[in-house]
Recover the amino acids of this structure.
């Protein structure tokens, strides 16, 4: 595992009676792209502000590259922050904006010129060095703000929803550019966002936050394929969650019984603790549908739940179905439209929803009820 660049220990922040960040322990690896993801009010921005020195912790410590900086003011910490608002000086050129911090640090003129040129090249704005911010698009201004932060060569770069003010197309373009820049320079990026796709596109590791705590930490694929809580399962995409009782845990695959009586198999490794009452989950795109006219479905070896379609929506690349199961659950099913799977099933049709048991995950039922 990579050496920790930022270590948070017991970090807590209270605003009056409200606990924004609750006894947080976190190690952010050196040289990676790390994202803190969660809904508004989950504590992610407050955590970032404590790392940057803009908020003072109520308790706990912030450690940067082996040094305790908890009581070090923001301007003396070896980090820079890029905010959603660009905060550029309108009367200065792009180059002057980028150079501003170096001038305040009294960096020699020749070195300033070289570092500004390198920073502008990194964000692909060399040809716009003499423009003023008001003559630029929002995406270009955000890249100027990024260059201004990077020119200081900080230990870590903190990104507070930096793409939130941009339109969808530009946001996706800058997601790729940010990933490229981080890979090119190799410094630690810590990115705060509420946008699941943005975090999953860019970050090496993601901390999903809820009510001031980390619900789960992992890669995008780990969080999506094997969420540990109902909150994570529902925050990252859409999940089907079904109440079930564990019947056996022997071997690699456990057997559970859904409330409607369907016997289903689940990887034993994903079952939470020793509880017998759980909620199993499967992503909508992992499911397939088979029309049932007479007899039983033909899907051998798959998990199978019977029901009927209550809604079908054609969305181009796929058809999105809602299936009301015999156990009373509603399943979201996304079926890729192709020659093998034409969108020919409609409401009222009796179907079997089938899926590979290995793609099933499970969460604690009590946590699910509170999610």
């Amino acid at each position: 595992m990579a050496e920790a660049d930022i270590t948070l220990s017991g970090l807590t922040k209270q605003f009056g009676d409200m606990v924004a960040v609750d006894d947080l322990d976190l190690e952010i690896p050196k040289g990676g792209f790390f994202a803190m993801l969660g809904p508004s009010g989950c504590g992610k921005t407050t955590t970032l502000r404590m790392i940057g020195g803009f908020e003072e912790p109520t308790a706990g410590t912030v450690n940067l590259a082996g040094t305790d900086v908890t009581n070090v003011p923001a301007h003396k910490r070896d980090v820079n922050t890029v905010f959603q608002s660009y905060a550029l000086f309108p009367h200065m050129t792009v180059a002057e904006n980028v150079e501003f911090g170096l001038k305040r640090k009294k960096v020699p003129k020749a070195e300033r010129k070289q570092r500004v040129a390198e920073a502008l090249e990194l964000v692909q704005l060399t040809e716009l060095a003499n423009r003023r911010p008001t003559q630029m698009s929002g995406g270009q201004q955000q890249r100027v703000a990024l260059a201004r932060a990077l020119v200081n060569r900080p230990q870590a770069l903190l990104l507070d929803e930096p793409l939130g003010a941009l339109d969808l197309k530009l946001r996706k373009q800058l997601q790729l550019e940010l990933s490229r820049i981080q890979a090119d320079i190799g410094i630690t990026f810590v990115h705060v966002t509420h946008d699941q796709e943005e975090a999953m596109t860019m970050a090496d590791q993601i901390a999903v936050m809820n009510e001031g705590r980390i619900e789960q930490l992992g890669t995008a694929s780990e969080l999506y394929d094997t969420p540990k809580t109902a909150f994570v399962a529902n925050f990252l995409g859409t999940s089907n969650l079904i109440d079930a009782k564990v019947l056996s845990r022997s071997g690699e695959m456990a057997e559970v019984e859904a409330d409607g009586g369907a016997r289903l198999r689940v990887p034993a490794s994903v079952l939470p603790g020793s509880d017998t009452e759980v909620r199993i989950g499967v992503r909508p795109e992992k499911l397939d549908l088979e029309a049932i006219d007479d007899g039983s479905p033909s899907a051998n070896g798959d998990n199978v739940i019977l029901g009927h379609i209550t809604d079908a929506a054609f969305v181009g690349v796929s058809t999105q179905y809602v299936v009301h199961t015999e156990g009373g659950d509603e399943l979201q099913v996304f079926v890729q439209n192709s020659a093998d799977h034409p969108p020919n099933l409609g409401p009222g049709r009796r179907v079997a929803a089938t899926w590979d048991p290995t793609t099933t995950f499970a969460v604690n039922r009590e946590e699910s009820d509170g999610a």
